[in-house]
UniProtKB/TrEMBL annotation:
It is an enzyme of class 2 (transferase). It is found in: Cell inner membrane. Its cofactor is Mg(2+). One of its GO terms (cellular component) is plasma membrane. It catalyses: 2 GTP = 3',3'-c-di-GMP + 2 diphosphate. This is diguanylate cyclase. Its EC number is 2.7.7.65. One of its GO terms (molecular function) is diguanylate cyclase activity.
Amino acid sequence: MPQQKHWGPDDFPCACLVTASPDKQGGQQLLFANAGAAKLLGIASEALVGRKLTELLTPASNIMLDTYLLPLLLHEGECDEVMLDIKTAEGQTIPVVINASLTAGDQGHICWSLFGATRRNQLDQELVKARRQLESYSEQLYQLSVTDELTGLVNRRQLKRRAEQLLAQAKRSKSPISVVVLDIDKFKQVNDTQGHLAGDEILKRLAAVLRAHARESDVVGRYGGEEFSFVLPDTCEADAVILARRLHALVGEIQVAGQPLTISIGVASSERLEEEVNAYETLFELADRAMYEAKMAGRNQTLVARY
């Protein structure tokens, strides 16, 4: 019959330490260290015996030891999966996962097992990095879904969504909200004579002007083609008209074939509507109709909706 192998602490794939009970004199002194501890710390087992456990820990980990680990051991008799940092003989700091148990009896002592957690920390960091990248990608996808690619303004879907939110707030606060719809005059002629790239450049320059003169609370978006819309919370019809007239002057600074760019604008306001029909579709339809009437009346002007 083959002789049975006797297993000892040096056969365990982790660092094992034994210290005296913390309520005894010299309670932090190492009484035993196995080969795994010697390998982890870079210090021979015999040289570890007699040293203080606190000498092997970083200052932050010593605070954790005194304020959490030792009180827990005295109260519960054991602790599991506590992260601490140890110092090796070469001065490196290594994260470890510690399990410990307090033995019973007059000669009570603490048995410690330490598992190196460097790879675990690296994996945690990689997971955090991957999560942040995923959040970044999600934000980018969201921005793509709500933004007009050419102009960088919100698109038609997001314009409607934000307008409905602002209308609901205006209804609760009983404050006015106005919609301004504008369209570039003779834009098809620009595309036909100068090409679509030139037309795209004009759309981007117009969008920049609109964005620069929108308040933080305003929503400005591209409704489609050469048509844009402002949603103006806390804005009465008269103030919306003032903005529209200012836009005529600002947009006129954009030159097209040596001529100032012109726009036709329609304005509608919730203060002129019955409360039950206070909806974005209604306001936009009224402002859109007023904008087309401005075009029919000669272009390059602002008209207020007929309610």
